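It is worth pausing here to work through a concrete case rather than discussing structure prediction in the abstract. The textbook approach is simple: state the sequence, then state the predicted structure, then interpret. We follow exactly that order.
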Amino acid sequence: MQLHLLFKPSIAALLLTFLSSAAYAQKNQDPSDSNPKKWELGLGVGAVSGPDYRGSDEYRSFISPIPYFVYRGKIIRSDRDGVRGNFLRTDQYEFTVSASASITPETDKSTLREDMPELGSTLELGPSFNINLTGDSFAEGWHLQIPWRAVFAIGAEDSGYIGSVFTPQFVYRNKLQEWTFTYRAGVAFASEDYHDYYYKVDHDYVTATRNYFDASGGYSGWNNQAAFSRKFNHNGINTQLAFFIRYDNIEGADFTNSSLVVSNHSYRGGIAFIWVIK
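Step two, the predicted structure:
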């Protein structure tokens, strides 16, 4: 496992989006805060560890300074689910446009993809229809998220649109004393071009241990994720701490027949510490 200290703005921005959607960003309606600020600004540091991509057995860890920004407008928000726009919202259902990110640094060092094009980090953007199942609002209890997102590669030679994903998931949120707990469980489906981006092996890259492979669209695995976050206030200094762990299973997906897949199981984790300046 390798540890890197990264200061690239693109990686820092992706790390912020990834961690905010996974763990530490505040709830839209925190029951313990009857009058939340409209916006917050801060600085922090985050760390993420995970595989080069689902199916790889090569893991890398890295840390990066990150900016912190929360905005709670009537339509545009940056909160517990990353950056999103609320176009239709009640306590029982909502229609949003949201963004999320996945970080894939230094895949040029991957032995499985030796001499193949480097993979980029990805930014996902698209609509989501969410249904509240048990809580008084989306800030607590179970709800169902049904998002479809277009995916764009960033930071690689072949950057740009690489396909789309459909990732329905159940989400549970609750307060455990001073901590906010979030659990997610869902399945994923993706377009053929998305699977090809990670798992296709063109004839030019065939070797003695790497066979030609052309992926198909469809089922893309299932996942679990748990996250904890907490706010601290000491002598007027506001800070936040959060961490998450995620498990992905790709058994049964068509692309597991690719030579670029050596494991059907993968784990990813991250932690963030934020100093809220204002």
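Step three, interpretation. The CA atoms of residues 48 and 270 lie 4 Å apart. The radius of gyration is 19 Å.
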